Amino acid sequence: MGQVDKEELTLISMNVILHAGNARDYVFQAVNKASNGDFDEADELMQQANDEVTTAHQAQTSTLQKEAEGIEIPYSPLFGHAQDTLMTVKTEINMMQEMIKLYKTIKG
After folding, report:
1. Could you tell me if 26 and 45 are in contact, meaning their C-beta atoms sit under 8 angstroms apart?
2. Residues 56/16, Cβ–Cβ less than 8 Å
3. Sign of CA pseudo-dihedral 31, 33, 35, 38
4. Which of 5, 36, 81, 102 is catalytic?
5. Is residue 57 flagged as an active site residue?
6. Which of 26, 41, 72, 95 could form a disulfide with 33 if both were Cys (CB 3.0 to 4.6 A apart)?
7. What is the pLDDT along the chain (108 residues), one digit of tens a residue?
């Protein structure tokens, strides 16, 4: 069927980590803005975080789809780390969305 080589998987992994990290940065900026009552800016930053995490998720999903199609994916601790980073950031986004709702209630 085919195979993804280590170099390609490394690039995919770094892409996931990069976009997940960007998402994390945006989400914490958003909470900071919300804590200061700047909810429009917070919402915009949360959208940017969601866009970044979507890009990271697409890179991960395309790799998993390849494996499901029978394309061999080599074991990579870096890819595992990338998936872990993405999962953690998605959880942080969910938690911070709730925190922003609380700030809106308190300061709104």
Report:
1. yes
2. yes
3. negative
4. 81
5. no
6. 41
7. 689 899 999 999 999 999 999 999 999 999 999 999 999 999 999 999 999 999 999 999 999 999 999 999 999 999 999 999 999 999 999 999 999 999 999 987
